Amino acid sequence: RSSSTFFSAPGLYNVSSGAGAGRSLPLGAVFSGDEWFGSLAVSLQQVDPSEQNAFFGGIFSCPTCAVFGIDVDQARRPRGNEYVLASAGRRLSEDWSLGASASWSGLNGVDGTDLLYAGSAQIDQFGGAWDLRMGALKEFGDDHSLEILGLYNRFRMTHDVFYLDQFWDPNLLQVSQRPRLEQNLDRTDTWGFHVEYERPLASSGWRIGWVGTFNYKAHPKIPNYEIQNIPRDPGFSRAYNAGMGIGRTMGSTTVGADLVYEPIWSHTWADSEDPVQTASGETIIPGGKTIENRFRFDNVAFRMGISDEIVLPDSDTGLGVSFGLSVRSIEYHLDQTDHVQLTNRELREQWLEWSPTWGVSLRRPGFEIRYRGLVTHGTGRPGVRRFGGCFDICLEGDVAIASAGGTGILAAPSGPLTMDPVRVNTHQLSISLPLNIGALRGAGRVEEENR
Fold this sequence. Notes:
This protein is mainly beta. It has helices at about 115, 435-450; strands at about 5-10, 10-15, 20-30, 35-50, 80-90, 95-105, 120-140, 145-170, 175-200, 205-220, 235-250, 255-270, 275, 285, 290-310, 320-340, 345-365, 365-385, 385, 390, 415-435.
């Protein structure tokens, strides 16, 4: 039976301690016919930069900034992103369906990127991403189903980072500032494959399912983040997951839980631009590796939830409520080798992230409204330790991880860093309205006849 739905799901989030915020407004429609189905959606997003990266708290002036086109206050202005998604599919038979989707993102502000360039006066981000997916669904007669998905993602960003270097001006006998521009490229290509299978669990009313995913990421260029300070670092990553979930619907109540294991291997390195002499007197030729970073992750995610809907007596109104909890354990081992100084260091880190969720819904024959809230505890935002108004780059010690833009790849910092604890609050309101295409066509024919 043909049906169409219009939806909107505006959302907002904020990070405690002034570490960022954002809001988005998506609009879209889903169409489904006897054989063909598809969707189209667009979204506008606004991202607020972190207040933690305000250059030295704004206590220094910069008379020459305007000459070089630097507006220090611009670093605190919100940035806008655009997203477009289109999908289409066809039912080949009663048990086979094929589908594909394509999405484009125009990005001018990726959340958290400003924190990776500690001490910068201004960051201009521009670029985008393409995402292509194709999948198939096989439905068996006994309520079994098998899903297969393949994807390719192309991520391209450019970061123009302005710094204000301080120096002693002997003519003015005072500390002055000299603007400096660094351009960093962020390039990642991702190929992925996903499979999912579910079936009834005997005759108890429970259903059980399994998932498996493989992603390969190639990094032609990872930015030279200030907190990382490793120039020209390409690399690659392999990420897997394997999980199992179980759920049951009893009348209007649905419960479920799943457990997913995520092993990840990441290998990045720094290339030498010129011949480099090592501590032993040997020479690393141009293009040779000066530093190698090897990450091994063993992450585990556990999620559980329950939802219920009550239909009011003598009406078509349904009131729903849901609660959930997501716990994520992140553990990694870093093995960093410096081929110039001929040194090696290892680091192991582990922490937990807790995300309670809740939601309410109102369903009527003509519309449906849902609200969803989420709070994430136990996470952190990277920063650089400061002493006396300047950045300390002499001490060794703390090592933290930082998400490289939207690529999900980890940078290995070489200086004293901090992971400031923050709390992420997310709120989303979604509205769905059925579209009566037949009625619209009929109205169009009547109007045409009246002409």
